[in-house]
Design goal:
- There is one protein chain.
- The protein has 287 residues and is α/β, with parallel strands linked by helices.
- Helix content is 50%, strand content 13%.
- It has a seven-stranded parallel beta sheet, sandwiched between helices.
- The termini are far apart.
- The model has no long low-confidence stretch (mean pLDDT 94).
Length: 287
Amino acid sequence: MNSPAIIPPQTILITGCSSGIGYHCAHSLKNLGYHVIASCRKTEDVNRLRDEGLVCVQLDLADEKSINQAWSEILELCNGQLSALFNNGAFGLPGAVEDLSRAALEHQFATNVFGTQQLTNLTLRQMRTQGYGRIIYNSSVLGFAAMAFRGAYNASKYAIEGLADTLRLELAHEPISVSLIEPGPIASHFRANAYHEFQTWVNTEHSPHQNNYNAMIARLQKQGAAAPFTLGPEAIHKVLLHALQSKHPKARYRVTKPTHVFAILKRLLPTSALDWVLRKAGGDGRR
């Protein structure tokens, strides 16, 4: 059963709005007449977005108490009518799998998976009470096609895809839709943030992957687009609008040419051939 189209002036909650995709979509939807509730982890970003005219709450997806506190504030701001949730908040922790400690993996999953699903479950209860809603997860091409030196992020997005697919099946007879957006390279601060996470969590001193890390660091520090076919965040806004307004929202929205290509190749190629393509595409960490 499909939920009714979410058109202005209905209310949408967007996580991870300090920059990039979340920032662009929050402003763009507000300009279209939506009642946007943005969220950011840091106080200074919350204040900055409020100064820009957005309704914004402080919400740290890695902190269970922060989510519960923010949720109470969100319910007041939307008067108990939250039409849509865009799960955009996430980050990447690069590094070879064997160099990722248990703590590093828990750090990655706390935000990208555990916090995201906690907020989704709170939202779902409200949507069931009001009788409609749309839940949209921002996943990645790396949610179905893994690349080297991105293991923690790959795994977190694979997990999100599994949760979203399961939730969609469980809600098949309710007026609440579930969609995944699967971007490829999008212009944002993602690489700069990932480099900070890498420096914090990965000890490279005795790693057998040191040469690969040198190439990876150069990519993370590169100014401008570091991968071919990089699009701006407006590409996400376009499919987000369809997921909100279409009578029949898609289960998956693939954005950028690499995402479409890898989806086709994953269906057609044997694993060994796909592995070769993914190794080349990743360039041993250079792309």
